[in-house]
User: Which sequence fits this backbone?
């Protein structure tokens, strides 16, 4: 890249939307580090290089695409319908299901961080979902990126085959629920925060990827790492703390981590989005450790299986074990439902609360309808009823009031 002749050839043949590397390895668009805000494609052959912005966006400044005035930007507090799809996102079937829908909020897997899917056009999928909503109802929906912030996943680009518990030292434990290939991490470690936020040796990070692709924010899984017994034991040993003090320290470190995520995405990143949303999945008990700080950092919270879960079907949409089992029956030694509802009571007036229930109207049981029309409705939560695999959009039933039926 530093030899003049090769530089000329590369510049002549750069395709639209391509990028070159800067000194730290981070991809830099010819349109500038903001890279069209993830809502357009850079034309490097224009004079000067310019963004071709997606429908509903316009070039507001060099390298930036901003929403067109008059298009309603969905606000998280106004969401009525949402969908959650984190498996098979790269399939033609899921493209066909997702594009053409009119949900207010989508939670999607960041497929380009998966080994083997790096070239998938995730930005194009997000663009096409947005464009359909904008052209059919003049609403730009929220699209959140599913990111596991408390566990290393062996199918991600950053994972090394030699890793195991204890090597590197910040890989703390296997997943306590037996999820193969998932490892609890010391989320405060510099290495993990680089992989998640600031960039590894190539400048790549999970948060930066969400900004590059045009997601509106992050949907954080495994925030509950702060309460993992191995994490607490590690902090207690390293800092010579009592168990109670280690639990408090683990909670503060998780809040520090989440603060770092939000600040980087909104301010520090070259693609910073000041409106970037931060939503936690589960771990509602983190709120109790520092309520003002939690409420300042979070834009919303989502809970899985408050009432209804599954004990199978994690990779098979059609497996009947993936839905319609009462959570308290699955875990009789816990009082899960009551405890979570108690945790959520003080948050009701502060932020939107989403719930994903693994409930369907099938086999003579109308448990999805029970969620939509009674359980979630009575609590003021925003529900989505689906199946454990999260590989399709549920039609049994469609969310009440979702009209027209377009998938």
Assistant:
């Amino acid at each position: 890249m530093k030899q003049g002749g090769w530089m000329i050839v590369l510049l002549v043949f750069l395709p639209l939307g391509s990028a070159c590397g800067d000194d730290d390895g981070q991809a830099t668009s010819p349109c500038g580090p903001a890279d069209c805000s993830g809502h357009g494609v850079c034309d490097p052959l224009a004079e000067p290089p310019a963004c071709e912005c997606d429908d509903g966006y316009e070039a507001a400044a060099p390298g930036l695409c901003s929403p067109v005035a008059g298009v309603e930007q969905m606000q998280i507090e106004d969401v009525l319908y949402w969908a959650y799809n984190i498996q098979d996102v790269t399939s033609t079937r899921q493209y066909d299901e997702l594009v053409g829908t009119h949900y207010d909020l989508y939670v999607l897997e960041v497929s380009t961080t998966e080994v083997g899917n790096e070239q998938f056009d995730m930005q194009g999928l997000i663009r096409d979902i947005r464009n359909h909503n904008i052209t059919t109802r003049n609403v730009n929906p929220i699209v959140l990126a599913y990111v596991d912030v408390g566990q290393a996943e062996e199918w991600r680009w950053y994972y090394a085959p030699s890793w195991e518990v204890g090597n590197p030292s910040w890989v703390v434990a296997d997943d306590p629920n037996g999820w193969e290939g998932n490892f609890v991490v010391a989320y405060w470690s510099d290495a993990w925060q680089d992989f998640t936020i600031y960039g590894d040796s190539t400048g790549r990070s999970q948060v930066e990827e969400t900004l590059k692709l045009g997601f509106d924010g992050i949907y954080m899984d495994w925030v509950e790492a702060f309460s993992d017994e191995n994490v607490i034991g590690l902090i207690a040993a390293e800092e010579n703390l009592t168990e109670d003090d280690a639990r408090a320290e683990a909670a503060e470190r998780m809040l520090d981590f989440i603060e770092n995520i939000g600040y980087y995405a909104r301010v520090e990143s070259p693609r910073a989005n000041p409106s970037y949303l931060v939503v936690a999945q589960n771990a509602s008990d983190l709120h109790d450790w520092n309520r003002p700080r939690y409420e300042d950092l979070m834009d919303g919270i989502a809970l899985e299986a408050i009432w209804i879960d599954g004990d199978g079907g994690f990779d098979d949409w059609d497996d009947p074990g993936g839905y319609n089992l009462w959570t308290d029956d699955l875990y009789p030694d816990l009082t899960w439902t009551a405890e979570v509802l108690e945790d959520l009571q003080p948050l009701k007036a502060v932020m939107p609360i989403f719930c994903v229930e693994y409930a369907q109207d099938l086999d003579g049981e109308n448990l999805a309808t029970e969620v939509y029309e009674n359980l979630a409705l009575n609590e003021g939560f925003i529900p989505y009823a689906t199946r454990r695999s999260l590989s399709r959009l549920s039609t049994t039933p469609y969310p009440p009031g979702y009209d027209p039926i377009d998938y």
Q: What stands out?
A: The longest strand covers residues 142-148.
